[in-house]
Amino acid sequence: MQANIGTVDRTLRIVVGLALIGLAVTGTIGVWGWIGVIPILTGLVRVCPLYSMLGVRTCPSACGKPN
Predict the structure, then answer these.
(1) Rounded-to-integer distance, Cα 65 and Cα 59, Å
(2) C-alpha 33: how far from chain center
(3) Which residue of 10, 34, 52, 60 has the fewest CB atoms within a 10 Å radius of its CB?
(4) What's the confidence (pLDDT) of residue 15?
(5) Distance (Å, whole) CA 61 – CA 17
(6) Closest by alpha carbon to 9, among 65, 37, 51, 53?
(7) How much is the pLDDT for 1?
(8) Is the four-CA dihedral 41, 47, 49, 51 of positive or negative sign?
(9) For the chain, how long is the longest CA-to-CA vector?
(10) How far apart, in Å, are the Cα atoms of 49 and each of 12, 17, 29, 41, 44?
C-alpha cells in the first residue's frame, strides 16, 4: 500500500493515540481509550485505510511513490 499520511497528520495521530492510551491507563476515560492504538499504528505505517477508500492524501505528491 502507498503511504497517504503526511508528517503533520502522522505526528498528530501518534500524539493523540498516546494521549488516549495514557488516559485509559490512568482510568480517566476507561477502556475506550485503548482505541488510541489505531491512530498510533496508522501513524507509524503512514497508511490510513479510510483515507485510501475516500481518496484522501495528506502527504506531498512524492510521498508513497516507489523509488
Answers:
(1) 11
(2) 15
(3) 60
(4) 98
(5) 26
(6) 51
(7) 77
(8) positive
(9) 45
(10) 17, 17, 26, 11, 13
Tens of pLDDT, residues 10-38: 999 999 999 999 999 999 999 999 999 99
Tens of pLDDT, residues 34-67: 999 999 999 999 999 999 999 999 988 767 666 4
Task: Kindly compute the dihedral angle of the four CA atoms of residues 9, 54, 46, 26, in this order, to the nearest 10 degrees.
Answer: 60
CA pair distance 56, 65, nearest whole angstrom: 15
Q: Which residue in this structure is represented by grid cell 503533520?
A: 8
Angle of the 7-26 helix axis to the 37-45 helix axis, nearest 10: 150
Alpha carbon 4 to its chain centroid, in Å, reads: 10
- Measured distance between the N- and C-terminal CA atoms of the chain, rounded to whole angstroms: 14
